[in-house]
Every structure is written in structure tokens, then in C-alpha cells.
């Protein structure tokens, strides 16, 4: 019996921030859309994000959602968070997918923090309250770097080469801390991205 259940699925390009190059890069071996899901392990009450490329099913993200994770909606279609090794970004194919994924992420974080009972996500029943945005959200204490117009142009070029251009490959706005990504604090073992 599989005790993991998908609570959301969305289409997005999975990105990782390269601190040395100071830009966002596609996760995995090539750019392209992935199906990104949040799984809930009901017996252990844990959550993880798993993304597989639509084209070849390559796993491009597999990371745990831990209590206290800060999920930042940098733009309506570009969201980001970090673990001990990576800063992840999701460039969603639609604003609808982005909003639904954000609701599921906030739900998972609320369950982990004890603010909500361990209930499955119901359709569109969750409210949008408490979602950080690029207004005065978490940008300062997270130290994230938002995708620049140069990053977006590179992503669009890579997607055109692979024939996978999406309407969300638009330029997110810059933030004050765009070149300052502080080192992540250590987190428990088992927190990794699976990609070969």
C-alpha cells in the first residue's frame, strides 16, 4: 500500500540558482516543462516536491518540504524556495497552475507547523491568505535572487531550441538583494535532488 498521495500537480520549468554564475539554470540535463507534484506521506505526515520532465520523465527535483520553509512568490508565475543545497525556482506555465501550487504549498507548511489538522487539500477550498508576495514578502530575510531579464531571455532561448516555449517565460522584476544569496543553514539528511 502506497501511503504517499499527490495533493497537487502543475506544469512548470524547474530551475536552480547557480551562485557561481549568478543566474538561474534549468534543473536536470536540459530545459523544458515538467510535471511538478507535492506528495503527502500520510503515515509519516511528511511532504515532498517531485518534478519529472514531460518529455523524457527525468527527475529534475525531489526535495522534502520541512517545517519553516519559506516559499516566495517572486512573480505571479515564478516561485522560489531553498533547501540546504539549492535555491529552487518554478517558472509555471500558467498563473492558474502557480496559484494552485502555492495554495497546496501553504497548506503543507500549515500542516507541518501544526496550524492545520492533517487534512488533504480540497480542490480550490483553501484561501490565498498568508501567501508571501514580492510586495514586502520574504524577499529580504530569504536573500533570494529573482530571475532577471537576462535569465528570462536565456530560458526563452533554451525553450525555443527544445520547442517548449511557455507563456510564463516572462521577465520577473528585480529585487534589491538580487546578488546576495546567503549560505543555507544545514538541514536533516535525506534532503536532496535526484538527477543524473
Question: What's the gist of this structure?
Answer:
It is found in: Cell projection, Lamellipodium; Cytoplasm, Cytoskeleton. The chain has 196 residues and is an alpha+beta fold. It contains 3 helices and 8 strands; from the N terminus they run E-E-E-E-E-E-E-E-H-H-H.
- Supply the number of helical segments: 3
> Order of helices and strands, N to C?
EEEEEEEEHHH
Question: In CATH's first tier, which class applies?
Answer: Mainly Beta
Number of separate structural domains: 1
**CATH H level, superfamily name:** Pleckstrin-homology domain (PH domain)/Phosphotyrosine-binding domain (PTB)
Family: Belongs to the Ena/VASP family.
Main location: other
Keywords: Actin-binding, Cell projection, Cytoplasm, Cytoskeleton, Phosphoprotein, SH3-binding
GO molecular function: actin binding; SH3 domain binding
Tell me the layout of helices and strands.
Elements: E1 4-18, E2 23-26, E3 33-41, E4 46-53, E5 59-65, E6 72-73, E7 78-82, E8 87-92, H1 95-113, H2 139-142, H3 149-162
Antiparallel strand pairs: 1-2, 1-3, 1-8, 3-4, 4-5, 6-7, 7-8
Tags for this model:
196 residues, alpha+beta, PH-domain like, 8-stranded antiparallel β-sheet, 3 helices, 8 strands, globular, disordered C terminus, PH-like_dom_sf, SH3-binding, actin-binding
What does this structure look like?
The chain is of the alpha+beta class. Helix content is about 20%, strand content about 30%. It has a single domain, classed as Roll (PH-domain like), CATH 2.30.29.30. Strands 1, 2, 3, 4, 5, 6, 7 and 8 form an 8-stranded antiparallel sheet that branches. It is globular and about 45 Å long.
Amino acid at each position: 500500500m502506497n501511503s504517499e498521495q499527490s495533493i497537487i500537480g502543475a506544469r512548470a520549468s524547474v530551475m536552480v540558482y547557480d551562485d557561481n554564475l549568478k543566474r538561474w539554470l534549468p534543473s536536470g540535463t536540459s530545459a523544458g516543462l515538467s510535471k511538478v507534484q507535492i506528495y503527502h506521506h500520510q503515515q509519516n505526515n511528511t511532504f515532498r516536491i517531485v518534478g519529472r520532465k514531460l518529455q523524457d520523465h527525468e527527475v529534475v527535483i525531489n526535495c522534502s518540504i520541512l517545517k519553516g520553509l519559506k516559499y516566495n512568490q517572486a512573480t505571479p508565475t515564478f516561485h522560489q524556495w531553498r533547501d540546504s543545497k539549492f535555491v529552487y525556482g518554478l517558472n509555471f506555465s500558467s498563473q492558474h497552475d502557480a496559484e494552485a501550487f502555492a495554495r497546496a504549498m501553504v497548506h503543507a507548511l500549515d500542516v507541518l507547523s501544526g496550524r492545520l489538522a492533517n487534512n488533504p487539500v480540497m480542490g480550490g477550498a483553501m484561501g490565498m491568505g498568508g501567501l508571501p508576495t514580492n510586495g514586502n514578502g520574504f524577499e529580504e530575510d530569504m536573500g533570494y535572487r529573482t530571475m532577471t531579464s537576462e535569465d528570462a531571455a536565456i530560458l526563452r532561448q533554451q525553450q525555443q531550441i527544445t520547442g517548449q516555449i511557455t507563456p510564463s517565460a516572462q521577465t520577473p522584476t528585480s529585487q534589491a538583494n538580487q546578488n546576495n544569496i546567503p549560505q543555507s543553514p544545514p538541514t536533516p539528511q535525506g534532503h536532496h535532488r535526484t538527477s543524473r
